[in-house]
Amino acid sequence: MTVDRRKFLGGATAFALASQPLATLAAPATQSPLLLNRIGPSASRLYIANADGSNERLLIDSGTLDYNASFSSDGQWIVFTSERDGLGNSNLYRARADGTQVERLTDSPAVDDAAVFSPDGSKVAFVSTRDGFLANIWVLDLQTRKLRNLTGIKGVQADDLQNSPSGFFRPSWSPDGQWLAFSSDRNTEWKGHHDGAGWEHTQELSIYVIRVDGTGLRRVASRKDHCLGSPRWSGDGKRIVFYETLAEYTYWVLRPDLLLKIDSQIVSVDVDSGARTVHTEGPGFKISPQYIGNDEIVYRRKGGPAEGLYSTVPGRPVVKLEGLRTPAWSTDGRRVVYEKFTWRGWTQNQALYSWDAGRPYRYTDVWPAFAKDGTMVLTAKGEDSSVDIMRPDGSARRRVYDVSRQSGLDPVLVKRGLAGAFFPVWSPDGEWIVFGVGEWFTQRGRGRAKLMRVRRDGSGLEQLTDDSIFNAGFPSYSADGKEVVFRIANEDPKSASLGGLAVLNLETRQIRRITAGYDNMPIWSPDGSRILFNRGVRNPNSIWSNFDLYTVRPDGSDLQRLTSHPASDGHPVWTPDGKQILYNSGMAGYRDEACHYDQTFQPYGQLFVMDADGRNKRQITDSIWEDSTPQYVPPGAR
């Protein structure tokens, strides 16, 4: 089926699209840009080296993101993922092993990634979100260009497809070309880290095999509350090797401050009997295992001074290649291909791939908001979480609150993103900006934070709440400018440190509570009639585990729940006309194994839009990265 790349998203829910012809989705008229924050590297280049680390050389540099490369069995070709069609849109390419003869293999608005050649080189298996937005294993015939979805069928998909994860990742061909191994979180549950208390989700994976005709699905390795990933076959096809770690660590591995405190091991399983062999021991996060022949296993140790390429053969020296990620060795074990990420940061208003024919997508730092004259304010989290104002295109940028000079906050916490000036919002007349200053996220229950406001010229700085009483944050002005809603955090482990929403009267300075839940990120509707917010919802046997979107009247009455999917929803904002809500959701699931990401804490997060009453939910991004804090530029502010 030929798919119009720009008509892929925006017409139905993530799962309804599986049965809807994509080409029938109508493109809207030209509209103002969508701003979004994306957490991921700014560039990536492919390298190749001898397996001992010698003769390292640049292989492919498209000037954008190239990653997840692997060799053909004869070592003559590599297949890789590239975002050269637009940042966020990943397609498959192949090239000669010297970097020449680059050829496109797929052209889709979906995620296409993690491709591997069949043993005879005639096909590639890969991960794709086409046909329903969920990550499945597909096979592409390189001669006929015919595609087949191996895992997107009943009996292979999760039993409860609407409410549980159903992703399939990192395929690997058996040496005879008859089977594919892969990891999957099918029939698991959405669970937050730290025993369900965390906002971000963990990932529990098992190892499966399936015949290339889509039959014979079988789970060959699984362990409760663990993540088993990146399977690879032995040369004789008798064993499959993979990494194994606690599911809890699939969040820890994404955080530089926690990575060195966790471990994983390299394990193999006999395909017929299921007998396990553990090949490594001790600390260190070990990942990307691969057989060289039938006996030697090579792998990467991720993070810290011991980072490098290792072998299970005693006496083999550690190979150090600075910055290396996702290594893949040639079948003979003589060469290794890999990528190196660049983390220079993104540029305000940088063009991103747009899944909407009539609306350009642009990068923004976090929590952008617009005054009535079109001036934008945001948190400069990419710098030091100060408050900046600018034109929508990023020009005429000016700082109105400087965290380094004015806040007195611990610079270590600021650097870690746990403190700063967050969620700035304009007053209706565009003269004031209200925001929170203090300690956030994991610090909120034990650190201080207060509401502040400042004039648009940086004058008149004023403290609005007492941070010795409670941690206050995420404020929003009422439509008449007389009140500010915000979230309260108290130190109470049983409530995960949150105490509900409150409203501050700016004239009397009186505060009234309007909710008492695990509530956050409130924002007043443009007409002042409702307050939109995010609420933690208790799941059985957990503290919270799930977050959904609600609205409530300013007096605390008429509470309405807008989302109820077991995956978390967050970062909600009203569209300028108040008729729709933009938000971030995990409902479409992961696009890759979480352990392969770096500093990307919700890699399953995609952007959605829905009507103000919660109807007509539809996905509007489909990248492998975390997309968040969306905002439409008001039409008059282009």
TrEMBL record:
Keyword Signal set for record: yes
Keyword entries, A-Z: Signal
PROSITE patterns cross-referenced by the UniProt entry: TAT
Keyword Signal: yes
Name of the protein described by the UniProt record: Uncharacterized protein
SUPFAM superfamilies per the UniProt record, alphabetical: DPP6 N-terminal domain-like (SSF82171)
InterPro entries: 6-blade_b-propeller_TolB-like, TAT_signal, WD40
Organism: Hylemonella gracilis ATCC 19624
Signal peptide: 1-26
Pfam families (UniProt xref): PD40
